[in-house]
Amino acid sequence: MTRILLIDDDEAVRRATAIMLEARGFEVVTVDGGQRGIETIKAAPFDVVIVDLFMPDMDGLATTRAIRELSPHTPIIAVSGFMFHGRCPSMPDFHPMAAEAGAIAALYKPLRANELVQAIEDAMRAAERCS
Q1: Which residues are within 8 A (CB) of 105 and not within 5 positions of it... i.e. 6 or more apart?
Q2: Which domains does the chain have, with CATH numbers?
Q3: 4 near 120, Cβ under 8 Å?
Q4: How many CB atoms lie within 10 A of CB 66?
């Protein structure tokens, strides 16, 4: 069974995403922030990590970089509810920033089940090619 670590400060997002993924056969562990995510990845391996980019305790870019150092081959999917790109020209698109930090994919919230599952499957295939 594919193990997924979901790091997001929003409890409703964690709950809804976990239910959505568990219904599709994934094992999901959720934590409420970057520091807890780092502690969790130190304690146990995961097949994929999903990390929110905008969190109060430790932003998702810093979290992604830290996880990349601890577990270089674990694919990371960045997610964000902020849809700046195209709406506010002065705000950067987070996709390139997430990729630079080490994320293999970036998705906007609200997460759609098929899109998220496809990103997980793509991330796992990419990780297999790299190992």
Answers
A1: 75, 77, 78, 119, 122, 123
A2: 3-130 (3.40.50.2300)
A3: yes
A4: 19
Q: pLDDT tens, 53-73?
A: 989 989 999 999 999 999 999
Residue found under tokens 């094992």: 27
86: left (phi over 0), alpha (psi -120 to 50) or beta: left
AA identity, residue 7: I
- What gap in Å lies between CA 110 and CA 8, rounded to an integer? 13
Residue 120, H or E segment: helix 113-130
Q: What is the pLDDT of residue 85?
A: 47
- Please give the Cα distance from 82 to 46 (Å, whole number): 26
**Sequence letter at residue 34:** G
